[in-house]
Automatic annotation (TrEMBL):
Residue ranges constituting the G-protein coupled receptors family 1 profile domain according to the UniProt record: 39-291
Protein name (database record): G-protein coupled receptors family 1 profile domain-containing protein
UniProt lineage: Eukaryota, Metazoa, Chordata, Craniata, Vertebrata
SUPFAM superfamilies assigned: Family A G protein-coupled receptor-like (SSF81321)
Superkingdom of the organism of origin: Eukaryota
Transmembrane feature ranges: 24-47, 59-76, 96-117, 138-157, 191-210, 238-258, 278-297, 304-323
One annotated Gene Ontology cellular component of this protein: plasma membrane
Family: Belongs to the G-protein coupled receptor 1 family.
SMART domains xref list: 7TM_GPCR_Srsx
Keyword set, alphabetical order: Cell membrane, G-protein coupled receptor, Membrane, Receptor, Transducer, Transmembrane, Transmembrane helix
Length: 327
């Protein structure tokens, strides 16, 4: 038996055994982390670099991309280390890690909800959208979203910071146990509330799109067949978008809150919650494809950055060749 602290056998945790069959699993997790970082970084660079892309909607996508980028850069590698080795950074940093985890994911949920509100105003109230939704107001909402996520999780983790060793049974362990009461509060604030808002807004959007399509169909007689096909395509597109947004979000988030529904405490380091946590972190890898990859500007900026990297590589190779030829 190998211990995290070889000189403290009586109070040290056993060191996790890394199986050879798990190599494929760890490589897959590293690939997910890399894809999450690269895809969200492309979104961040594209929106921040090109001023014409800095619209209110894109700023909300930028906020989502920043939180998902931090998930891929910080949280996923930390989860890999926690799975494969002992925790040697102390109980205080363990508590800080979990607070960072919860803060980043809370801000991601808030960004998704703000995107839903933005789409609702753009489709259901298009005449007043430009006056209601401005760049400055969106920036304020994004800052408020991150600040509220930080304050909320600071309150959640108050007791944990006071005595971070209360739930640890041995040295080299980093676990988090969320009580049933705290889990219920978190269930309402980060699951039931956002899910309700998103579902209500997107159902309303779907109803408005269907109503507009039927209105066009009844008024235009000469192009009845064409409009009918257009109406059907519009309904299907709205339904498809609604399904992608809601199903991906619920599929990745719902399993984590099953213990809260059953009245159990949430323990972050048991085997079941480990799988559920990875499913939720995987959502950060999916978000860029759902919210950004369908935008034409995102595909164009990807091509631009790929061409730029290629030209820089060619230029560096040419300069290296000239330097070697001069020698």
């Amino acid at each position: 038996v190998r211990f995290c602290h070889s000189r403290l056998h009586n109070i040290s945790c056993r060191k996790p055994q890394r199986l050879q069959d798990a190599m494929l699993f760890y490589n897959l997790l590293c690939l997910i982390s890399l894809v999450t970082v690269i895809m969200n970084l492309l979104v961040i660079i594209s929106i921040t670099h090109f001023r014409q892309l800095q619209s209110p909607t894109n700023l909300l996508i930028l906020s989502l991309a920043v939180s998902d980028f931090l998930v891929g850069l910080l949280l996923i590698p930390a989860e890999i280390l926690l799975t494969d080795s002992c925790w040697f950074l102390g109980s205080t940093l363990c508590a800080l890690y979990y607070m960072t985890d919860f803060t980043i994911t809370s801000s991601s949920i808030g960004s998704i909800m703000l995107i839903s509100i933005d789409r609702y105003l753009a489709i259901c109230d298009p005449l007043h959208y430009n006056t209601k939704v401005t760049v400055n107001r969106v920036r304020f909402c994004v800052c408020a979203c991150w600040l509220c996520a930080l304050i909320y999780n600071s309150l959640i983790f108050t007791d944990y910071f006071i005595d971070p060793d209360a739930v640890s049974s041995c040295y080299g362990e980093c676990i988090l146990v969320v009580s049933h009461v705290t889990g219920n509060v978190d269930l309402i604030c980060t699951f039931i509330g956002p899910i309700t808002v998103i579902v209500v807004l997107y159902v309303r959007i779907f109803m408005v799109v269907v109503s507009q399509a039927r209105s066009m169909q009844s008024k235009i007689v000469a192009l009845q067949q064409t409009v009918t096909m257009s109406a059907i395509k519009s309904e299907l597109k709205a339904a498809r978008t609604l399904g992608i947004v809601i199903l991906v979000f619920i599929a990745c988030l719902c399993p984590y809150y099953i213990p809260s529904f059953t009245g159990e405490d949430i323990e972050e380091r048991n085997s079941t919650t480990f799988i559920v946590s990875w499913l939720w972190l995987l959502n950060s890898c999916v978000n860029p494809f759902v919210y950004a990859s369908f935008y034409p500007w995102f595909r164009k900026t990807i091509k631009l950055w790929i061409n730029l990297v290629y030209l820089m590589f060619v230029f560096a190779s040419h300069c290296n060749f000239l330097l070697e030829s001069q020698k």
